[in-house]
């Protein structure tokens, strides 16, 4: 029957059905529209895709996922494509559907009294900040990619940023969640309940699962009352251990007002100043270490806070914890301080090839880790230089290893660079730390996770993945490698 | 071969092997020792058990669980046996091993600088409070059963209590976790990392899973600096909606210092005063509602806090939010206020039969829920009286329905009482709430959860349970009912 018909290929049939579901705007195979999303923003990973789907609603996405399940089409969810680990880039098989959540960009509701906002997955972080601001509130998570990063991506990767010290990672902001599961069912846990002990907290399982267990479509997020100004200081220190002691002192003196504490070694500041001739050093002298400190006032008056921070820093100077300090005179200068911090990655990249590591160890141990690990790496790989900067108060630094002067970009990374990273990760594990503090695993660290993570945890993760996505269609190849001993 | 031997029964063989593993002290079948643990503390559930195991260490427990897996012996973990939902009581088959964690009661380490303590599962909450106190710190979760509740039980049930408003439930206190899985492997995630994005947060999955996914053996818990005194107030109000407005005002004025806000209707206070002739009413008049407010000072001086609370309450009185208020003059009086609050359950029980419901709705909606639900229940079940008290700031109240005057204890609960509970739970679900805010599901609410919970969430939970405990040996019959449509 029908033997004379030209049967459509399975892929064609799938694409037709998907177009019927999503409309022309919802599905495209046009290379000009798709190509830019097939490479991650840092240009490290490039893949191919069957097409790019852009559903307009959770219901459309649920129907699409059901269709994918029926046709066994893998799905690679993508938000702002600003991830750091290649988690939103498909492999090069071309079998997968690239799923853009960017069209689902509505803020469904904002409730000032309850301090809550319901965002769809495609809402850009910057837009959320603006909407919160207009409502006289604030959303207490921010990071460099805020102009492109989406709520769905931030939830799926449990993003961090520079306010984790006080407000926690994305996990701490999520009060409710909506997601489409591998079978196309909608998991609706958007209603925020402060206390709810009806079994396993499935929301927590989805947060940080990088689209491998479900596709986050919306989240109810915590809003805080708007702040009443901030006080930002740049300090110069002799040693990283002093930075830890300084952090403790400021925590004790300023309490909950302390929101940011970032450390910057001399090398990073030098690089930024060399890379951006217009930038100015905040302090007169050169210091081995710098700490950028930010306090935020929630009460009516921030002059009080300024006095408190001045007193605290003066006492710290008395104790010999710091050599010099400048408190930003105005908002403009505070922005300048932060701009120095935010320019480190770009400035270091301009210097030449480097391997970057987003690592954490127990908070208390980080200064000692930096002091111990840096010379070990530099000795094992002559000519390299280890540079650590970032979120000392979270036990999380970006540990960059710069290549020797003669190294060729694109070659060194593949040759010596990989060995450098393996050694850094080995050290992190020896210190009880994490090879991914805030960037996730994506495709970049799948092998390293499989090599270094606790086998019991890996096996648990595989069991959960198998249970929730038995056909392996959700973001395949990301986060967990297939079990090498499995007999499938 | 060996046909003339008397073969031991499988159970005997298991018990012998278990005794070899745990020693005489670690395993007993002596009814006198076991019996008291076969009934929950409120006397609602009684079960039977093969024996009671009391391992001395995680390693011993891991070996025991492996043995149980080999012999297909179900395990019912138990801490202080002070749960509210029968979650630690075995069924009456007598097939299960009752597993006491009480012998594992070491505080392994306390780190003042890092603000952390590592407790074994059997550490009693009261002991943790004392140990923290000795170290100049405090553990910010407390509840009525603190003299018997253990850390393992508190983690497994994600316990709440009276400080959740400010400090969150047990989940928020857990920085690291150790558990024995169904196959006897040890999941070791005790090392606390403030930022760690290595895949699914398995720790979160175990918290609140009531021993159905793994057996918590130890936890790293958050400690806070010791407080510098508290200020406790008892206030009288005309309406529950005023209580919500009062809470908002005090939150705004006192900020992070506000730690407790409990509401008590006139009926509850009357019951307590009638039940405890020595107790005194904190205020001269009788008020429809009372709110117990507690603020805790973390800075050097609490007199400041007292002034602030006085000012805040005076302003609230100006606004007509409250009719009268008394601030405890000293620690003794503060204790007396709390004693009134903590005596409600016992006093209400003394009045006659009642159905108790531990429910939550979105925080903002709780006053309206109480106002709407109480008359509906009282109309549907003539002669009953609905009484709601507790954690208004968490959207969580204990919603008790007192039986009609003529009701006979032990009969009414089984007859009309069950219908009352079903109706209360229906209403809670209509309001988007939870039928278990802080007590968990245990065996008490398994059927109601299966009846009322989102089928998508239930199915997800069953998948996770199947993945982590495929033989169903961990606390069987608790939390999730077997899938009625499953064809096993």
Molecular structure report:
- The structure is a homodimer of 488-residue chains.
- The first copy, chain A, is of the alpha+beta class and 488 residues long.
- The first copy, chain A, has four domains: 10-100, 2-Layer Sandwich (Uridine Diphospho-n-acetylenolpyruvylglucosamine Reductase, domain 2); 107-194 and 201-225, Uridine Diphospho-n-acetylenolpyruvylglucosamine Reductase, domain 3 (2-Layer Sandwich); 230-344, 2-Layer Sandwich (Alpha-Beta Plaits); 352-430, Alpha-Beta Plaits.
- Chain A is 36% helix and 19% strand.
- Chain A has helices spanning 10-22, 31-34, 58-71, 125-134, 151-156, 164-167, 170-173, 202-206, 240-254, 266-275, 303-318, 331-342, 344-351, 366-380, 413-430, 446-452, 455-468, and strands spanning 27-28, 51-53, 75-78, 97-100, 107-111, 116-120, 137-138, 174-180, 186-189, 215-222, 224-225, 230-237, 258-265, 289-296, 324-327, 354-360, 385-391, 396-402.
- Chain A has a five-stranded antiparallel sheet with strand order 5-6-10-8-9. A four-stranded mixed sheet of chain A has the order 1-2-4-3. A four-stranded antiparallel sheet of chain A has the order 13-14-12-15, sandwiched between helices.
- In chain A, helix 1 packs antiparallel against helix 3 (58-71) and helix 10 crosses helix 13.
- Chains A, B: This is FAD/FMN-containing dehydrogenase.
- Chains A, B: GO terms for molecular function: catalytic activity; FAD binding.
- Chains A, B: It comes from Erythrobacter sanguineus.
- Chains A, B: Keywords: FAD, Flavoprotein.
